[in-house]
Amino acid sequence: MRINKNLIFWFFTLAIGFLSCKKEETISDLEKLRKATNSSIVDSAQAIASITQQKLQELYDISALYTSGNKNTALDSLNYKQIQGYFLTNDSTNVNSLLQELDSLNVRYVKIKNVEISSKIEGEDTLDFADYTVEYKNNTQKTIAEFNKKSEYKLIKKPVKFKNEFKFYFVKIDVSEKDSISSGVTK
Known about the structure:
This is Lipoprotein. This protein is of the alpha+beta class. The protein has five helices and four strands, in the order αααααββββ. Strand 3 and strand 4 (166-172) form a beta hairpin. The longest helix is centred in the N-terminal third of the chain and has 25 residues, at 44-68.
């Protein structure tokens, strides 16, 4: 009988040991940014690039959802207002050009890739840009097209209860580079 008591004791000890071990969970990049403190080193450019990619993905997802709908339901009007909320000004030209592009290609899914941020100084203003690749897919998730795009964004400081918070807005979703050749008479 003594062997059985020792065997049972060791079995329970091992079982408790296995159960007390913590399982390691994977943490998303967004969760890492939320839990980051001043003591943890996070490159601000990487953080801004990650936030920019998230905002671009959200904007394109909602826009693709809007273009796939009837555009005349209550849900569609809410989606349209939400799309406008991503822009600094309530100008419909940015929204309409984006929606027109998605609608003309029958885009149902969008993937944002290779986001790189840059800044340009013009006079006293600093303009922030995001260069990225957007991949358009149809309803069967087959790639329709990929485009390299450039968008201008702005981070606006909005303190809430003595905390520094920033609101993210797009100024223009598809910025075209100015041609270096001046327009004139051609023969």
